[in-house]
Amino acid sequence: MTPDMIALEDVIVLIQAIEAGSLSAAGRRIGITAMAASRRLAALEAELGVRLVHRTTRALSLTPEGEAFLPHARAMIKQEADGRAAVRPAEAGASGLLRITASVPFGRKIVMPVIAACLNSNPDLSIELMLDDSLIDMAAKGVDLALRIGALRDSSLVARRLADNPRGLYAAPTYIARLGKPHMLEDLTRHECLVIPGTTHWMFNRAGRPVQQRISGRLSTNSIEGHLQACIDGLGIARLSGWDVVEEVARGHLIPITLSDAAIPEEAIWAVYPSPHFVPAKVRVFIAALLGHLRHK
Fold first, then answer.
1. Res 85: pLDDT
2. Rounded distance, CA 265 to CA 171, Å?
3. Does domain 167-257 sit in CATH 2.30.42.10?
4. In the chain, what are the helix, strand and coil shares in percent, each to the nearest 5?
5. Element housing 120 (H / E)
6. H-assigned helices in 7-107
7. pLDDT attached to residue 3
């Protein structure tokens, strides 16, 4: 069987079905129905003359023949994508519907300006932005790109580090006038800390080692924007990302707090997408625009 006898569209369905865990999720990723995805997979198996996938009502798994074929399938898709990229003019831009998810504050303050620029420079592009402070199932929602901050959970998704995400402690002038500033890590035990419900400790680095510091506060919320507003209102000390408080610090609404003996561990901003072998131009264009925006923050 020669590669030019195999339809690349059918190969893409196989790869996406295995990575997403179902034909319906694969269909959502590439914009076709579950029935169409099933037909393409069946066509690929007929062309090769072997069964590639065991199908059940709940999951898919590769047959031994599928295991053997999968690396070649991925190589075929990569070769085709490399070929297109080599001849695609830079001014061609992006097209189609791009589904993005991000946290509420990051989406509002960082992602929205990038979306505006991308839509202005790519007239054939449409964008659907889902703002949610909790993690969503990318495959189930048909998401092309997730923008996440902090430690990532182990998964089959592809993660690309975009930038550092420096964080710090902040408080309002009214809070500091009332209760003062903490200067050392243990001072936090005597302060009102704005926390996520159920949180009893904050992580810090001290002398090159991670340490936990017990904290408490009368107000807890699962919303980062809730933490920010409560902090501005003088209700406590909050841990916030630097990009989230640029305006508030500049206007004097918040004051950074530096501890002499500890610092908040470093985090990163990540671009997460389903597959390294089928990254649409719309995703590449948006990531490039976001990188450019983050470099100037």
1. 53
2. 19
3. no
4. 45, 25, 35
5. helix 112-121
6. 8-20, 23-30, 34-48, 64-87, 104-106
7. 46
228: which residues sit within 8 A by CB, 6+ positions away?
Answer: 105, 238, 240, 244, 245, 248
List the CATH code of the domain at 3-87: 1.10.10.10
Query: Rg of the chain over CA atoms, in angstroms?
Result: 24
> Consecutive sets of 10 residues in the chain, 297 residues long: mean pLDDT of each?
69 89 86 90 93 82 92 81 56 79 94 95 91 80 88 76 95 97 96 95 94 96 94 98 95 97 94 79 91 86
What the block records as the tokens of 165 is: 């995400």
Residue 192 CB partners (closer than 8 Å, separation 6+): 175, 179, 216, 217, 218, 219, 235, 236, 237
Q: Which CATH class is domain 92-165+268-295?
A: alpha beta
